[in-house]
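Let's sit down with a protein and look at its sequence and fold side by side. We need material for that, and I hope you will provide a protein of your own picking. Once you have written the record down, we can walk along the chain together.

***
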Amino acid sequence: MIRQFLSTHRTSFGQLVRFCVVGASGVGVNLVTAVAVKKLAPTLWKGAEVNNVWLPIPGTPFNIRWFLVFSVIAFAVANLWNYQLNRLWSFRSKNHAPWFAEFLPFFVVGLIAQGLGMILELALMYPHSPMQLSSVFFDNSTGFRTQWYWAHTIMVCVALPVSFLLNKFWTFRAIRIKTVDDKEG
């Protein structure tokens, strides 16, 4: 039964494995970018510490914190990395549709996953959240005990399966079908 399932879904399974390898490399790119941005930020922007307010949301008691800005920058770099590798290797779509025609949906999928992930990241960082990572262990004394690094890592890993499914069934499949239909018509 397992053998039959694997033979029936061999292509999808191979794509999933390749997507996970690309995703793992993308996690690495994302985390390296996040660490670099966090370390460079105070030099580039005054007051750019992880938990400092970047922008108050007018008319509310809420703020956008620097860690969310760092997260978006890391996402943008990793999204381009992942897109190019997935296009060429995971889904082998380099000859199916123009680069931007597939990138735009891939980016939208990434934004959806990033948005959902940032809600999780915020819950892991917010001091009054029941999901906040313990400040006893994550006291920011070293890199491995930095609360935001762990929250960011968890967020990226949770977003991976959402991203795979949306990209497989929408980005790379739908665009290929639309492009083929356009060429035939």
Notes: The first helix runs from residue 2 to 8. The first strand starts at residue 53 and ends at 56. Strands lie at 53-56, 63-65. The mean pLDDT is 83.
